[in-house]
């Protein structure tokens, strides 16, 4: 196995054969994991073996229960739902909002597509991470890229609907958000920036991206006040969604509840699963808020 750890691209033939053996259990405990597979010391059982085979990797989605099953399906089916909403939006949108501009439809569609990408990338990551060390690392980067896409896809329509009478402000804020998103994507995909020595710059970029949507929100509060901004203008959806995301991320960061009862939440109700549920809930809440924000923008008379 030394060759495999030094060269993630190498395939260990004996491992492939042993993984495919019907005499072996399809799941293993934490003590039997390869080093690169272990990322949560409080999840003790239900791990898939390193597969080194695409057939068995994708087969694990439906063939048997393991500790990634809920993580896969909790984002796979929301991705399908958001995609259906995106492809049918034009029909429902144009019939209900005849005064809406084409740009309104574009921003709503982009948000739904960003949700599709985020949830789809997450489901794919949790599906294929057991394939090999290299695939685990690259799909993890894809998972983070999905988060960045959802952040950018959430903030830009909020800006569009929040400043219906100022194209200049829309462009300024959206450009800043997109540029920070590109910076975050570069950090995610470049292996150099994954090193511990670049932790500070990673933190700065992600904090800047995370706060980039709050600056225009504060701008709106200053101009319109809290009640009109958060309730009548629909921007409260962004706030509630953000708090939902943070709640899920906090539980995941502190590994609760599995930290309290190691081995009891290996298959169901682990912190990562709660994070997934919070992401789905937050994305849905934000979508409802965007509809309200759009309805408010259509009532504005710009001079």
Note down, in words, how this protein is organized.
- It is a single chain.
- The chain is mostly helical and about 300 residues long.
- Helix content is about 70%, strand content about 0%.
- It is built from twelve helices and two strands.
- It has a two-stranded antiparallel ribbon.
- The N terminus is likely disordered.
Q: Could you say how many structural domains there are in total? A: 1
* CATH domain class name: Mainly Alpha
Q: What would CATH call the architecture?
A: Up-down Bundle
What is the mean pLDDT?
Answer: 89
Straight-line distance between termini: 70 Å
Helix share of residues?
55-70%
Walk across the major sheet and give the strand order: 1-2
Tally of alpha and pi helices: 12
**Total number of strands:** 2
Radius of gyration from CA coordinates: 22 Å
Question: Could you please say which CATH topology applies here?
Answer: Rhopdopsin 7-helix transmembrane proteins
SSE order, one letter for each helix or strand: HHEEHHHHHHHHHH
Query: How would the global form be characterised?
Result: elongated
Q: What ranges have pLDDT less than 50 throughout 5 or more consecutive residues?
A: 1-6
Strand content: under 5%
Which structural class best describes the helix and strand composition? mainly alpha
Largest sheet: 2 strands, antiparallel
């Amino acid at each position: 196995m030394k060759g495999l750890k030094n060269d993630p691209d190498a395939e260990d033939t004996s491992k492939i054969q042993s993984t495919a053996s019907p005499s072996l259990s399809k799941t293993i405990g934490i003590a039997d994991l390869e080093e690169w597979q272990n990322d949560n010391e409080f999840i003790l059982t239900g791990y898939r073996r390193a597969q080194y085979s695409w057939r068995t990797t994708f087969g694990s989605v439906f063939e048997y229960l393991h500790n990634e099953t809920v993580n896969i399906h909790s984002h796979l089916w929301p991705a399908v739902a958001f995609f259906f909403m995106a492809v049918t939006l034009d029909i429902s949108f144009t019939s209900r909002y005849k005064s809406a501009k084409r740009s309104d439809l574009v921003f709503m569609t982009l948000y739904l597509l960003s949700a599709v990408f985020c949830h789809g990338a997450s489901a794919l990551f949790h599906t294929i991470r057991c394939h090999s060390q290299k695939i685990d690392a690259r799909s993890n980067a894809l998972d983070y890229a999905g988060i960045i896409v959802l952040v950018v896809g959430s903030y830009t329509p909020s800006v569009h609907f929040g400043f219906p009478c100022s194209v200049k402000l829309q462009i300024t804020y959206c450009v800043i958000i997109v540029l920070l998103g590109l910076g975050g994507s570069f950090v995610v995909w470049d292996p150099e920036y994954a090193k511990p020595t670049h932790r500070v710059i990673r933190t700065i970029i992600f904090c800047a991206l995370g706060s980039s949507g709050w600056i225009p929100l504060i701008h709106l509060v200053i101009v319109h006040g809290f009640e009109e901004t958060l309730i009548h203008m629909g921007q409260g959806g962004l706030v509630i969604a953000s708090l939902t995301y943070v709640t899920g991320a906090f539980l995941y960061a502190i590994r609760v509840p599995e930290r309290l009862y190691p081995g009891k939440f290996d298959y169901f109700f682990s912190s990562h699963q709660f994070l997934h549920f919070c992401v789905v809930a937050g994305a849905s809440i934000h979508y409802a808020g965007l509809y309200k924000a759009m309805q408010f923008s259509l009532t504005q008379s710009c001079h």
